[in-house]
Structures are given as C-alpha cells and as structure tokens.
Design a protein that fits this description.
With 267 residues, this protein is α/β, with parallel strands linked by helices. The protein has twelve helices and eight strands.
Length: 267
C-alpha cells in the first residue's frame, strides 16, 4: 500500500492542496486524485502529472484519504468508500460542517478520522488550517495531517466543538477581506479615482496592514490607534463605521456562518 495519498473530489480546495503538497517536495507518483467529471480528471493529470483513479481504487490503494468534496456530496462519497476502507488508513476531511462522527458512522468501525478546516491561501502557502481528531484518531494521525498541511501555511489543533466557529472565522475569512477590499475600491470610485489606481492603493494598504499585523507583535487596537490622529481623517471614518454598526454586523455575520456550518451535515 505504501504511503500513497489520495485526494478525493479534487476541486478548488483539493487542487490547491495538491499543488501545495507537490510544491513541498512530494512526487506526483506519491499522490492520486479522483474527480466526478472526466474532463476535470484529465485537466489534473495534465497539470500535475498525477494519476486519476476511481474513489474505490483510491480507497483500496492509498494510506491517507483526503476528502475534498462539498458537504452535500459527502454521504454519497462515503457510501462508495465504505466497502474498501480499513482501520489501517487515515481519512482526512476538509468539508465544512461535516463532523468526524458523521464520517465514522458511515465507515467501518475503527477508521481514524481527522477533520480539517483550511482556506484558499493554501494556493500561496499562507493557509490557516485547523485540525481536530475523531474518536479513533490519535497523536500519530494528527501528526500526519499537520505534516501535510504545514508546508502550505499555519496549522493549529483545536477541539472539534470549535470547528464550525473556525470555518466561519478562518475558512471563510479570506472572503470577508476581499469583500472589504471591493467596498473600499467602490469608495475610491466615488471619490473619482481611476479603478486600477484605487485597486492598487487598497491592495497595498491591505498587504501592508497584514504584514504589520503578523510581524509587529502589536495588538490590532494599537496599530489602528497609531493611524488615528486626534481631530484627523481616520476618526471621521471610524465614526461612520460605528454609526452603521459595522462591528456588530461582522460579529453577527460570522455567527451566521458558524450556524450555517452546523446545518450542513444535515444536508
Ligand atoms: N472554497 C473554500 O474556500 C473552502 C472550502 N472548504 C471545503 O472544501 C470542500 C470543497 O470545496 P471546494 O473545493 O470549494 O468545492 P469544489 O466544488 O470546487 O470541489 C469539490 C469537487 O468534488 C467533486 N466531486 C463531488 N462528488 C464527487 C465524487 N463522488 N467523487 C469524486 N469527485 C466528486 C466535484 O465535482 P464537480 O466538479 O463535478 O462538481 C468538485 O470538483 C467543501 O467541503 C468545502 O466545505 C474548506 C475551506 C475553504
Ligand atoms: O463557503 C463555504 O461553505 C466554504 C467553507 C469555508 C469556506 N468556504
């Protein structure tokens, strides 16, 4: 069986992880992928030189099975895998909302399951991934998941009870920042900036702020205070953000994402 890794349902996240694992030095022969559509499989084979197999074949041959289908497709996939998976394999799920128990209930008894929530910056080796162990998974399984994910970003262990919260915070997190960038560019347009110039100003401000957040060791409040001059321009903007309840909207939006995650396992 070797140490073959299979990515089942290699769509956006599966492909992102595949490319990251290859960048980290694994050979294409150490990986196989599965796809629902033939042309998707052909594209992955051509782009990465990996073999495309059926789900059943992946389950029979790979030591680690990474499930990267949508939560809604997980039940069907697990039904396909059940006859072929044995407890000497490791199943890693990347799906939002799907609990380890949901997977354990649909596979033979004793199969170790790790639940992961990552995010699209996997593509640039800046992912935030959080991992939790199911009831048959232990330290050695968490280590395998961490070893796979750490070349493509940061990895944190969390209790599974916090996974839906992490999905809302860091899984979806990049989307909130892109949304803010869109809104700021719109503001630039309103102020008469050319679109390309507005986009460049906003993106570079976002990159600068992100690097300072990561590297300065300062709390975000301190960094914002340093920008906010007494009687100046920034406080005029902050007053409007507060008046429109942006902080409360962010808190409620992320709570809604957490709640949606809880619904997803129900189909
Ligand atoms: N996008 C994101 O930012 C994040 C997504 N996730 C999670 O990752 C998972 C994948 O999301 P994402 O990559 O966006 O979705 P995609 O739809 O891009 O990828 C899922 C892929 O699985 C394929 N598929 C579905 N059923 C099967 C099957 N039975 N056998 C083989 N392949 C199958 C789909 O085929 P087809 O192309 O025909 O639909 C598709 O290519 C989800 O569970 C999501 O919750 C987690 C973190 C972030
Ligand atoms: O929107 C979603 O459901 C997925 C999970 C986290 C990010 N994208």
């Amino acid at each position: 069986m070797g140490e073959l890794i299979a990515i089942l349902g290699a769509g956006k996240m599966g492909e992102a992880l595949l490319s990251g694992v290859l960048r980290a030095g694994r050979r294409p022969s150490e990986l196989v992928v599965t796809a629902r559509r033939e042309e998707r499989g052909a594209l992955l084979r051509e782009r990465y030189g990996v073999e495309v197999v059926t789900n059943a074949e992946a389950a029979r041959t790979a030591r680690t099975l990474i499930l990267a289908v949508k939560p809604q497709d997980m039940g069907v996939l697990l039904d396909e895998l059940r006859p072929h998976v044995t407890p000497d394999r490791l199943v890693i799920s990347m799906a939002a909302g799907i609990t380890c128990a949901f997977i354990e209930d649909r596979l033979p008894d004793g199969v170790p399951v790790i639940r992961v929530m990552s995010n699209t910056p996997v593509l640039v080796d800046e992912a935030m991934s959080v991992v939790s162990a199911g009831s048959h998974a232990g330290e050695e399984h968490l280590k395998i998941a961490e070893e796979l994910l750490s070349p493509v970003g940061k990895v944190l262990r969390i209790p599974e009870a916090l996974q839906d919260g992490a999905t809302a915070l860091s899984g979806s997190g990049p989307a909130y920042f892109y949304y803010l960038v869109e809104a700021m560019v719109d503001a630039g347009i309103l102020l008469g900036m050319p679109r390309a110039a507005a986009l460049e100003m906003v993106i570079q401000s976002a990159v600068g702020a992100a690097v300072m957040l990561r590297d300065s060791g300062e709390h975000p409040v301190m960094l914002r205070e340093a920008v906010t001059s007494p009687g100046g321009t920034t406080i005029a903007a902050i007053r409007e953000l507060e008046r429109h309840g942006v902080r409360a909207a962010v808190i409620e939006a992320i709570e809604a994402a957490r709640n949606r995650g809880r619904e997803l396992a129900e189909g």
